[in-house]
Amino acid sequence: MVGVAEDRIEADRGGTGVMWRQRRVLLASLIGTAVEFYDFYIYATAASLVFGMLFFPADSDSARTMLSFASFALAFIARPLGASIFGHFGDRVGRKSTLVASLMLMGGSTVAIGFLPTYQMAGLIAPILLCLFRLGQGFGLGGEWGGAALLAVENAPPGWRARFGMMPQLGAPVGFIAANGLFLILGATLSEADFLSWGWRLPFIASSVLVLLGLWVRLKLTETAEFAAALEEGPPPGVPIVELFRHHGAATLTATMAVVTCFALFYITTAFTLTHATQVLHLPRESLLGVQLIAILFLALGIVHAGWWADRTSPRTVLIAGCIGTVPLGIAFGPALATGSLIAILIALSVALYLMGLAYGPLGAWLTDRFPTRVRYTGASMAFNVGGIIGGGAAPIVAQGLATTYGTASVGLFLTVTALFSLIGLWLSPKG
Prior knowledge:
Elements: H1 2-49, H2 51-55, H3 61-92, H4 95-113, H5 119-122, H6 125-153, H7 161-189, H8 192-197, H9 202-218, H10 225-233, H11 240-247, H12 249-258, H13 260-279, H14 285-312, H15 315-338, H16 342-360, H17 363-368, H18 376-393, H19 395-406, H20 408-428
Helix pairs in contact: 1-3, 1-4, 1-6, 1-7, 1-9, 1-13, 3-4, 3-6, 3-18, 3-19, 4-6, 4-9, 6-7, 6-18, 7-14, 12-18, 12-20, 13-14, 13-16, 13-18, 13-19, 13-20, 14-15, 14-16, 15-16, 15-20, 19-20
């Protein structure tokens, strides 16, 4: 009887240890991606509000905005490169050290932006440095999401892969709320002159505190069991990206197509809408930031719903539902934005971001299952970040051009086109 009791105690201790390790993993994946997305979103917000005036002199507001959005898009170009480099080490060395390095690069680049001189202070060197550190942001984020998703999914118990995989996705609304919330507070408490002079710098400098928090959590992690098992089966690939394209090219292509919609939804509803509503519709900046903060809660709701739904059915089913819902949304989105009504804009953004949650929440589980463990970091990261170029980096620029030339209705139709594009990728991908 004593032996049985001791076995039960040891089992309880083991179960408790596993539970705490899983909680630490989920916390690390959430905090890390929240910090990374906070860094990314404060740039998007600043690019929409102030960078055009401070770093890119031009003859018109539209030209300054296009240049500012072009600098924003640079990070999406850098993200696949970051995905290939960090994916290389993530698949060969391990998830933990790679995630720590990506967080440090992203955070360092963000803090540096907060200390940059403006064009008026330093001339052409100012936008050059801004673009350089923006590339650093993109390079770091290119290695962040894939590693965080793998960290969560590879530690998930049976039947929980989508719900564990949604935790890195929740970092997106958390980071966005922190970023826009801080800009909203600064806008409400500072004069316009103070905000343009130094207030916009504070969110970038504040990133240093969040990065230290993320590092503290991640340094306490251990490698995932699936990665350790893969190393026991054989040596890691010499060059993971070569093996990926040689043996898993079709899976990479269809996965890339599938993620386009979630990026387009997010950056049309945030970066483009903020710029268009404040500069063209002349709505108050603080009102738009407040509307976006409310609407982003629907993104969180959609992600949570998607995680539970995907574990009950399949991640692919939920992704298809999100893309199908985006088709009619695109038809209604432009006219809703054109009304200039805060209520109409709030409804349009809320629906769009909820659908984004469905098209984004299951990606952690779905993308990681597209690839074998030995090239999973590289594969998931490449698909996610190349899709980001198509749907995210280009979206504000394309939307700005469409709105200027054809009106806001065409912006909504752009969303419809991206949804159809992603549906093709999902239809061509294996079921699961």
